[in-house]
Model the fold of this input.
Amino acid sequence: MRKLGPPTAPTTAVLVITAAILALFVLAACEDEAHPQDTPGATQTAARTAPTASLPPPSFPDGTTPALVVRVVDGDTIEVEVEGETYKVRYIGIDTPETVDPRRPVGCFGEEASAANRALVEGLIVGLEGDVSDTDTFGRLLRYVWLNSQEMVNAILVRDGYAQASAYPPDVRYQEFFDGLEAGARSAGRGLWGPVCLETSAPTPAGSPAEGACDYSGTSEAVIKGNISTNSGEKIFHVPGGGFYEQTVIDEAAGERWFCSESDAVAAGWRISLR
Done:
């Protein structure tokens, strides 16, 4: 008969299995503490309260159309995108020196005006405000361009001396405002009203024309148009090929006149158009 004795010690395999089971229980408890069970709606609440990095869109005056500026053409012309369509926009009421017309030399302060316009609007959403006319003869939208509810690009360019105020009725909603800004820029000698541009505004003779011949025509026919601004009273002359030559109509009864040469116009008190 077998004798009873003390229980035999557990084998090594049994000890290993027991330790593994205990370890699994400990890990499960830790997981429960680190990741408590989600309550209904917790994920949605976290999503709603998470802060957003996007900025609110700018506020524009009533009646404006938001548009993304995709390209700056020059100092007073841009390309914008509105609802997937691309349009060229010409700023109303102002005129910057020429930089892109291959028929004419780059105007004094023209490159600076283009750079200033680019710094103001490129890649931004702006507000477009119309006046009476929707487009010009080139099919460009005619608009006042707003950075926000208080700052208009057209006005900033005139104020800082990058553009002159130019009235083209019937689109004259802000023309008196622009004229006042130009007067301030002139008196301060800012930008194109500074000494560098004023010294180069008078034409340089390009040789002696044939006797009796006028500039641009080669005959005795006077073709330079001496226009007087209806708002500011400033005397501006336009030469053939200029940006506003064709649309300028001379009213001699109002004191406007024709000139045979640029030097005649300057001597009479007119200045050349910047475009």
